Every structure is written in structure tokens, then in C-alpha cells.
Amino acid sequence: MRPVAGVGMVGYAFMGRTHSQAWRNVDAFFDLPLRPAMVALAGRNPEATEQAAAKLGWAHAETDWKRLLDRDDVQIVDICTPGDSHAEIAVAALAAGKHVICEKPLANTVAEAEEMAAAARAAAGRGVRAMVAFNYRRVPAVALARRFVAEGKLGQIRHVRAQYLQDWIVDPDFPLVWRLQKDKAGSGALGDIGAHIIDTAQYVTGERLTGVSAMTETFVKERPLAAASSGLSAGSGTGTGPVTVDDAALFTARLTGGGLASFEATRFATGRKNALRIEINGSLGSLAFDFESMNELWFHDHTLDDAEAGFRRVLVTEPGHPYAGAWWPPGHGLGYEHAFTHEVKDFIEAIAAGTDPAPSFDDGLQVQRVLAAVEQSAADDSRFTPVEVS
Amino acid sequence: MRPVAGVGMVGYAFMGRTHSQAWRNVDAFFDLPLRPAMVALAGRNPEATEQAAAKLGWAHAETDWKRLLDRDDVQIVDICTPGDSHAEIAVAALAAGKHVICEKPLANTVAEAEEMAAAARAAAGRGVRAMVAFNYRRVPAVALARRFVAEGKLGQIRHVRAQYLQDWIVDPDFPLVWRLQKDKAGSGALGDIGAHIIDTAQYVTGERLTGVSAMTETFVKERPLAAASSGLSAGSGTGTGPVTVDDAALFTARLTGGGLASFEATRFATGRKNALRIEINGSLGSLAFDFESMNELWFHDHTLDDAEAGFRRVLVTEPGHPYAGAWWPPGHGLGYEHAFTHEVKDFIEAIAAGTDPAPSFDDGLQVQRVLAAVEQSAADDSRFTPVEVS
Amino acid sequence: MRPVAGVGMVGYAFMGRTHSQAWRNVDAFFDLPLRPAMVALAGRNPEATEQAAAKLGWAHAETDWKRLLDRDDVQIVDICTPGDSHAEIAVAALAAGKHVICEKPLANTVAEAEEMAAAARAAAGRGVRAMVAFNYRRVPAVALARRFVAEGKLGQIRHVRAQYLQDWIVDPDFPLVWRLQKDKAGSGALGDIGAHIIDTAQYVTGERLTGVSAMTETFVKERPLAAASSGLSAGSGTGTGPVTVDDAALFTARLTGGGLASFEATRFATGRKNALRIEINGSLGSLAFDFESMNELWFHDHTLDDAEAGFRRVLVTEPGHPYAGAWWPPGHGLGYEHAFTHEVKDFIEAIAAGTDPAPSFDDGLQVQRVLAAVEQSAADDSRFTPVEVS
Amino acid sequence: MRPVAGVGMVGYAFMGRTHSQAWRNVDAFFDLPLRPAMVALAGRNPEATEQAAAKLGWAHAETDWKRLLDRDDVQIVDICTPGDSHAEIAVAALAAGKHVICEKPLANTVAEAEEMAAAARAAAGRGVRAMVAFNYRRVPAVALARRFVAEGKLGQIRHVRAQYLQDWIVDPDFPLVWRLQKDKAGSGALGDIGAHIIDTAQYVTGERLTGVSAMTETFVKERPLAAASSGLSAGSGTGTGPVTVDDAALFTARLTGGGLASFEATRFATGRKNALRIEINGSLGSLAFDFESMNELWFHDHTLDDAEAGFRRVLVTEPGHPYAGAWWPPGHGLGYEHAFTHEVKDFIEAIAAGTDPAPSFDDGLQVQRVLAAVEQSAADDSRFTPVEVS
């Protein structure tokens, strides 16, 4: 019999639902060294938390996340709350000896992220693990992209162009949900979806951004107040309030390997729903990916004869592809949620193996530093702003 | 508290895994009138069945499917075995008062399918429900295609071109698994994947095939014996044996509404992994779908001004799309397995509502008749062979 | 100084315009052994022919095509008339010692095509050349497809699926132009566009169709009379008349190499404008092409590792691609008309070299036999109808 | 009889060939008020110029461009030389009363461009016209994009992302052709292809860039000397020399309407051959275009119901589309060169009508100012650099 890894999760909104789906199913598809148990869900509203726990498959409901730290049957704390509470929960959980997986962005400020990274480093010395949940790394096509780069298929990286395009707040009557409030969300498109493309670009290339030149904008400066606090939707409230985060952020960057990169995160790309796109050009080949077609990776092998070269659509559903073999036969694609399943699978394996999972809190801190540099550059006439590379 | 609907499943190979995934998750995403319980899994090999039950989340394991019929905690029997056992299990289960969901094709012969359909009709009189599991109907894009046709967006249907293209047996050394043996599988590509495009074409158009002209072929006539019986893969055995089913089947057809259709099912379309494709042209518009891009439906509205008309890629992930709203925000695509979750959701709702679920066993029988007509035409110089339309 | 090859062309409608464009430009892009001269254009209406000659760049206008045969400054006769006049003109021109390039389909009946092919064979003995103008062979992507097959990149051909989809007569008020009249056009979609996909399939695979099973349909049986005779458009007339050709033709076929093929030619594929599509699956690889994206050839190399294989988009604009190097730098695509330029380039080179150009009138005859077999099978309950393979 | 417009062209390399093709064919497809005559081609090398004139269809060859200004049979001077000679030729030609069409970028410096724009303004007062040849404006899909924006289909423009991606100098052994030398070319990817996307973005949106933040890079700093001076290719020479222009330029920008834009011009995007791409997001809809699929414009109409909205592929070959009706039936696409034909057609019509053609030299000057601002910002830590908007 395998040992059990009890999980306590904080938050049950969008991210709570995806993480629950991961914990509920990971054991049916992967052969894990520990058996995950969905022990307890923590939330502030007792009734809503009870209902969510029942719906999502958690055995218990807690109304204070600190209670999770007291439970002996919880070994893992999974943080799915808005960014303003990440640091407090994560630091306390690690101190309590719980392994921590924390949603991205790691924090709302560099200071918080530094505190969390320091806590994670200290915890690692005691065998306690911490991971930041950049789920897109675990999309099979993205993991394959990383493998291709690591194998040298692209040669020297010259260009990265990364975009994360959504359109859910194009309507000026869309309400002022917490994701549009700086005190809760830290930033807007930048931290929410820009953080993903920063991590994806650094992960796939294996390089770091050395500095950025940025521009941000808030197109709709005032919005109707939301009736209830929610990240993505809300009933109707009364009156309006100021949008205190960016609607869109554009920045260019330089990479440690000498390449140039461009980034764009926006919630105003009408018709683009969840277009996390990245294209990478190297001296030997290129890659392109768009999450709206998440089971495809486009690869150009420049070493082939020109007469037969071209971008090829690799359907990333083969047994030889990352994660894919655990699921269905070739051509039977995966969905958004599967990356979360892969995430907790890798996290459990790292815990059992006593190794540091990736992305680490240090990786999360590095992304946080880029986010801060973007804001600084945007406030300083787009001047190139270096990022400390750790 | 909602009443419980206990499920007993027979078979735990490819389809058993997809159905388990559906039963395990449906309640977390949909608000169901009955709470599904994964009561028991039946299989012949005790040890393997035990392991599968544990892995897939079934509470009990049985080594005889008839035991499921005796259990009071089982109200639903889910048949995931090869086609040669469907009739026996389904008829017995319905007689025992169990609701039945049965994998496709409904049976290996028209005679078996007729017996099953008669049993289903009789059972319906007693409030016992039967459904054949043509999962692709529940892919949101396919369900949306049906909706568009039903709303009249296509006008009169002129053309259907349907293909189901795979390539998993292109290698002549691929072994003689049960799906390549007529006594187990009934037919080859025709019944396995051809059945899907027949059902999909009839479902989306709301019409029936009135006759077919067909051609079939077995490209590789002898294959290595498989070490162990499996549908999709096998270890190495010794010696070779004859392939007794079709590798590919092509047929043209006429539709009840006067349109023309073409169908192709093959396991030799190198590079196509699971390309269930359908394109429909009507007097007012057209639709195109390819399962390899399963979250997209392409729609051409011919009533628009020519200068701005064109096939549009509808990303079928909006709240207003079939099933999609239960999952994730727009642009966060679903995968292969979700159609099965939708299937059991609709089945449970039909049971609770006391209505007949679709596709019914009569629908399955109709597909079986088309399959038989295809084989008859192929054996008779491709002569046009009428299909009885019920 | 190069010798001059004087050209006399018959007909100045759609095909007359494309051929004029070819003759006008071929010398500016290719280094030809003969200098083509646009000597004379023949048409029945004196005024219209004069105007067309001036517009299209022909030095003289003739009102009787037979006058072209008398001219010493004409060495090449280019036939761009409807199919009912091909045989008479071609046979006379060859007898007069003129090289002949004739639009497709070669004729309206097998008997006419046989007469023409015999005349071409006889003429070849006298150094007089004949070519049938299947222009799509000279699209660079199609020529590259042929090269890939000839090089063995596809292995044994298992499947061909060819479609030629248009939608210009979906509107039942579209008038009864000559292309919808059997006495002028021979057949409808079948001979007009079906002939193209038959030739393309045979050319690219290097195989022949050995027999067909077919189905045809005329969806709109009566149409408004056209005010003036034209193939593609017309002013308004009075009254209606019967459509005497097929609107759509579907057929399956067997290939000399043992593969299966399907063909569809229709003018009722709403939203598809000129979608000549062909997909070929072989034991080692696959190809796909759609003329609506005419500068792309999709190639799947099945000998690659599964983890990096996929259909690749070869942009057929490289110097190493057929014809492409004569035009613009890579990525600067060609258009519809360029295939005609390539056609006359190859024709001129064959004339100068004293070799038989391809496709020959025998090739045109073979296509004609397939067209006849399709009509025969369609009239005989879709029964498989062998095609004589020469 | 229409009056004749005699044309004298300077230069016969890549652009000379495209312009010749335009002059040779424009009259066969469009009904022009003036009949263009290809009078004389000017080049420095007598023999090569003679040969080019014969090949391309020019009646005479001149070895000094100034001779064109003396010819009474020349009314139009077409400048197809590298940027360093544009100002001298254009100013002189306008002074001589010749209408001038000049390749882009208008000049190598803002000062030259200002001189030219002033000359053009002065000439206009005398009925003499000047046009800068941003050919991509006349691709039907780009012209249609402009029409859609002008009709209000996009609403308020929020985002532009424009890229021009090529890969022809990825190989470090590619020689030091004139396009890689600052004294001849002015700049590298920036002026050569960056100029195109600046013009395209401004043209399609109808807005202007108000300032930029830029980053440029030269990846390969030393290259083999070219044997002979050419822009795109060269034989082998001896030794190496420094690349004095940018290989890639990235910049972000703000638009007069409040939107944000990003631009990237590079010759190091491996596998991208001539990918001029632009995507525009507005409050009511979006557009996307990629020149590698030049006959397609993608349009998203955000005012449709979400359930049926999506990016639609408008095949820009309909009679109702800009320029398309003059050519072939729907679905029969155009190629790269056709935009040049449209360009001279519009130029001739403007001359005959006595109106100023677009893009004017002032438009070319505006692009030049953006190019200068990009270089200035890149040299100043990417600091936002305003552009004077005229």
C-alpha cells in the first residue's frame, strides 16, 4: 500500500475547481508513489465552502485556512486564492511543515515573493517542498517545445514573440471584479496572464529576461461595481468605481542568450478568448504554439532541404510526447484542465523523491521581478529597465 | 438529498477508462437529479479487474457481468465490451430492470441489433432506459453543428462529406488484435469508426441515409499474432494470422432530403490520428468539423454579403454553447473524454425525467443497417443498396 | 536571335484570358528556345474579337478559326472554346501542321477524344505536337507533390481523396449559361472540374483509375434562360429552360497500385469557391493540397520519429521548387494564372526539343474514358464500371 | 483613342521586375484613361540594361537616368533603385514635369524625405503627381481591411500587432549585399520591411503613430563580401566586411486614437519567408492578415451572438472585393505581383483625374519620421520617442 498524501486546498473559485479536478483524477492516470487524498477545502463562507467541498469532492470543509495547518491528515497545502493572500498562507504552511503548491503569480509584490522564496529555500532544507503553479508548462505541447529547445533543435534563440490575448472585458459595462482591483490582484492583464507568458518564454527557451521596455494602458477607466466579489464574473451592483489595474501591457525584452523578445498581455483582443501564443525562432529551427489549439505544436526544422521544409503541425498526443501517453490513443486530444493534473503529478513525484519541484518559488520570484520591471519601465517613458537574474 | 444511481460497468479497456472518467467527474460539473455512484466493475480476470476497479474508482469488482444484474445497488449497466457480447448483456440487463448504456456499434449484426432494439422498446414501457454511446454527438462543436442545422442556418442539405481517418495499423507488423478479427469486432474500420461518422452525419443533418454504394479493402491481409487479446495494442506473439476485417471502407450515399453524401473510414491514412471530419453544404450555409481540432466548428453563412462572408472558426467554449458553460471560461478547450461526461449526464437526466435518451437502440439499429448495406454493396460490385429507414 | 513561335488562339472568354496572360508574360520570366508571338485571335463576333485582341495583346483578329490554319506566321493553335468544338479544330489544326494546345476536357465524348488522340499520334510522327491543358499540373505545389511521389516519399499509395468544390450556381436564379447545357459542355461539374481532379490524381500518383462507382445529381432542374451565351455569367433573359448536366458528381475508384480513391465535383458546396483539394496517403507519408491556398503543400513524413512528425506546410516558393525560382523571392506567392504560364513554357520547350509534351491527347483521352465510366456507372445503379487503361 | 502615358523606369533588379510586370499587364485587366507605354529602362551597365529591357518589355534602354527626363515620350518616371538615389532622381524628375512613382522607403533620411515631399507638393501645383510605392496597400485583402475599418466594423482600435518576418540571412555565410550596408540601404530590416508594416498599420487603421519605444539588433556582425552588388543575392567574394544595418527591429507604439501597437521587422525568423502579418483588435471586431496567405482576410465580428461568432476566413477574390473583380472568378487567387499592377492602375487614374495619388510623398515622409524615431529610441535605452504627426 502506498502512503497517502493528504491535500488541503484554500479557495474554490476558478483555480479551486481546476485543482480539484487534478487531485480527483491524477491517480487514475498516473502511477504515483503517494496516493493523494482530498482531505479538506478551506474558505471563508461556511455554507458556500461546504457546498463547494461536496461538489468538488473534498472530504471536509474548513472556514479558516489556518485549520489546514493543524490537521495531521494534511501534508500538502494548495493555495488557490487571489494574490494578496499568497505570501501569508504559503509562509505559514511551509513553517508548519506542509508542502505548498501556490497559484501564480507568486505574489503581488517583489517583497512578498522574496519572503516566500526565502521561506521555500529554508523549508527545502527540512524536506518540505514548494512549487508555483504555472500550469501552462505542463501542457504537453509546451513541454515538448521545451524538450525540442533543450535537445538543440532550435540552435541559438534569436526571437521570442509571446502574446496572451483575451477579450472578456471589452464591454465597458463589464463589472469591477476583483481581478480589476490593484489591492486584490496586484496588477491586471500583466500579472494575471502576462506572468504566464513570461514564465513560458523563460521555461521553453531555458533563458532569462535581462531587461524590459514597457508600455501599459487602461482603456476603460471606470466600471460598474460588482454585486459580489468574483474574479471573472459578477452580478449587477450599483454605481461605478475606478479600474486600478492595466487592461493591457506590452513590452520588449532582451534574453540572456542575446535574442530579442516581445510580450503582450491584454484583455481587449476582441475575438481572442485564451490565446496564449508563443513563437520562437532559432538559428536551426522555429516553434509556434497557440493555446487555443493546445494539442498542436508547430515546428520548423531549418536543417532540412528548403524544398521540403516548412512548419509542421505536431499533434502532441503520441505516447512519446510528455504526459500524453497516460491518457488516450493518438489524436484524442486533451483539454485545459489536464495541465493541472500533470502539475500535481509532478509535484507528488518530487515530494516522494525528495527533490525540488519546478517551477520553484525562486522561479516565481524571477517572474515577479520581471513584472515589477515592466511596471517601472512603463512609468519611466518605456526606458529599458534591467531585471536581476538569479 | 438526491437519490443515488448506482452504476455497474462491464469491461475496463479503452472504453472502460473513458466511461470511468465520465462517471467519476460528471457530478462535479453538472447539477444532476441523481447522484451517480461507481458501484462495481465486471471483468473476467479477477486480479486485473480488481486492479482496474481500484485504479478507476469502482467500489467493487465482479468477475461475472451477471452479478451486476443481481445487485440492488446497481441501477445502471454500462457495457464497454467488444461488440460480440453487447446483445447478450444488454438484453439481460434490460430484462433485469437495469437502465443500459451500451458502447457502439450497437451489435455485430443487424439481427442482434434488432433483438436489442426490441428489448429496449419493451423496457421503455416499464420505465427502463437504453442508450447507445455514440460519444461524438456530445462533443460541443458537434452538438452546436446539430443546433445550427436544426435552426435552419444551412437551409436544404446538398452535400455531406464525412471521413474518419486513423493510421494505427499502417505498419504491416502491427499485430492481429481483436479489432482486426471479424468474430470479435464484426467488421474493421467500418464498424469501429465508420459507425461514428454514419451516426454523426445522420444526427447533425437530422436526415437518414436511404442507400449506399460501397467499396472496402484489406490492404494487409496477414499479420503477426498478438500475445494477448487487446483492441488497440498487444505484446509480441508467434506466427501470423489472417486479417478478417476491412482496413478501409468508402461509400457514397443518398439522404432523405435529396442530398448526396460520401463516407470514408480507414486505418491507413498516414499522419491522420483521429480525424473524424464532417463537412456539410446547404443552400444557406455550410459547416466543417475535424475532431483533431475538436473545440472548433467552422461555419459559413451564405446569407451574408459576399464581400464579408467566409468560413468562420467558432471556438466552441462559450457559455452559450452546448455543455461548454459547465466547464471553464471561454477559450479553455475541452478534450476527448469530455464527450463521455456529457453522455452520462444526459443519460442520467433522461432516466430521472422518465424520457427516452438519444441515441436510442433504434438509432443504433439504423446505423447497423447502414453498415450491413455497405457490406452488401461492397460484395455486389458497389451496386446501390437501399437502407430501410425506420 | 531565337526563332519565333507564332500563336493563334481560338476563343477569348475565361480561358482565352488566362492563356493570353500566359503568352504575354512567359518570355519575361523563362529563357525559352523560341520567342512566342501573339499573332492572331479568332472569334465569331468581329467587333468583340477585335476588342478582345486589342485588350489581350493579340496583333490580329480573325472571325474564322480556319483562317489561323492558313497563316504562315502561326505555328501554334491554342484552343480555348467550349468542348463541343475541340475535336474539329484540333484535328484540322494538326492536319495543317500546327502544334495544338487544347483546353480540357479534351472533348465532349470518348469518340471525339479518340479521334483527337489518333490525330495527335499521327501528327507526332511529323514533328507536330499536341497537349491538353490541364493547368493545375503546373501549379508549383502540385508539381512538387508529383515529385515527392516519384521520389518514393509516400511509399505505396493507399488512399486518394480528391474534391473540386465550387458554389457559383447555388442560387436557383442563376441563369442557364452554356456550361449548364449538355450539347455545349458535354457534362456539368463532372467534365468541367471533375476532369481536373481525375487528371491531378493520376498525375500526382503516377497511377491510373481502373474503375469507378458513381452517383450524380442535378439539384436545380430548371433555370432562367440567359440573355447571352456565356460560360460563367449572363445577363437576364426571359423564361426558363432545363438544366441538362449534372450539378454534382461523386465517385469512388480503384487505382492500378491497389489503392482506393474518392472523387467529388460539385458546384453546390456553399462557401467553397475553387477548392480543388487532394489528399494522398501512402505507406511512408501523406500529402494534402487545397487550391484555395495554392502556394502550400502539406507533407507528412511517416518515417520520422512519432514525437516530431506531423503535416508540414511547405510554402512552395523556394528556388528549388518547380517553376518558383523564375518568379520572386521565397514567400512571395503566385496566383491562379501562373500555372498557364508554366504550361505554355513547357509546351514551347517540348516543341523546340522535338519531344511530346505532357499531358498528351492520350492522357486527355484516358480522362475522357473515366468521365464516360462515371456517367455509365451513375446510370447503372452505381455499379462498379471498369475503365480501359492504356 | 486614349492618350498614351509613356513610362521610363530606373533600375531593373527585384523591384524593376515587379514594376515591369505591372506596366506590361495593367492595360489588359483594367479600363484605363491613359494607355501606358513601356518606353525606356535606365541603368548604368549598358549591356545588362539592354538585356533587361528586352527581357522585361521596355522599348529602349538608357544608361543615364537623366536621359529619361529629356524624353518627350516619357511622362512617368518609375524609380526602382536603392534608397540612396531616390531623392536626387525624384526631385529632378518632378522638376522636369514628370509624374513620379518611387519605391519605398521614400528615402534614406528624414532630410531627403522632406526635400522630396516639398518637391512633390510644389509639383502638384503644376499638375505633376508623385506617389510612393507601398505595394502592400494594394493587396486586395489589405485594401479590404482598410475598407472594413473605414466602415466602422472594428469600432475603436485598441491593438495593432504588426510583424514582417523573413529568414533570408539566417545563415552567417550569406554575403554582404547592398541591403546590409547602411550607406546604400539606410537601414536594415527596419527600412526595408519595417517601413511596410508602419505604412500598412497607418493605412488600415487610418491613424498615425504618435511615438515609439524601440530595440534593434545585429545578430551577425561580419559577413563575407559579395562578389557583385545586389540586394538579395550575390556570388562569392573574398574576405569579410561589417554589417552596418540592423538585422531586426522591435518597437511598441501609441496610436492617435489611443490604441497600443507593436511592430517587429526581422530577417532572422527562421521558416518565415515573407510573413507580413497584421492583427487589429477594435471594440467591435478584429482583423488578421498574413501575406503568406495573401488572398485571405480574417475578420471577427464581435457584434454577433457569442455562440456563432469567430474569426472568419474571407477569401478576397469576390467581384465585390477591391481589385479582385478585374481578374478571375472567385477562389482563383492572385499573387505577389498583382499589388504592383493595382498600384500603377491607381497611379494612372490619379494622373488622368488630376488628383493626388496615395500614398503621397508626405505619407512616405511620415513613415520616414517613424523610422528615424525608432533608431533614436533604440539608441536612447528604448525611451519613448514622439513622432511628429503631420
Structure, explained:
Chains A, B, C, D: InterPro entries: Gfo/Idh/MocA-like_OxRdtase_N, Gfo/Idh/MocA_oxidrdct_glycsds, GFO_IDH_MocA-like_dom, NAD(P)-bd_dom_sf. The structure is a homotetramer of 390-residue chains. Chain A is of the alpha/beta class and 390 residues long. Chain A folds into two domains: 4-136, NAD(P)-binding Rossmann-like Domain (Rossmann fold), CATH 3.40.50; 140-293 and 295-334 and 371-375, Dihydrodipicolinate Reductase, domain 2, CATH 3.30.360. The first copy, chain A, is 32% helix and 26% strand. Chain A has helices at residues 14-29, 46-56, 65-70, 86-95, 110-124, 140-150, 182-185, 189-205, 338-353, 361-379, and strands at residues 4-10, 35-42, 60-62, 76-79, 99-103, 130-133, 157-165, 209-217, 222-226, 236-242, 248-255, 260-266, 275-282, 285-290, 296-301, 311-315, 385-386. Chains in contact: A-B, A-C, A-D, B-C, B-D, C-D. The A-D interface holds A 158-159, 161, 163, 165, 167, 170, 213-215, 217, 219, 248, 250-252, 254, 258, 260, 262, 264, 266, 268-272, 281-286, 300, 302, 309-311, 381-384 and D 158-159, 161, 163, 165, 167, 170, 213-215, 217, 219, 248, 250-252, 254, 258, 260, 262, 264, 266, 268-272, 281-286, 300, 302, 309-311, 381-384. β16 (311-315) of chain B pairs antiparallel with β16 (311-315) of chain D, so a sheet runs across the interface.
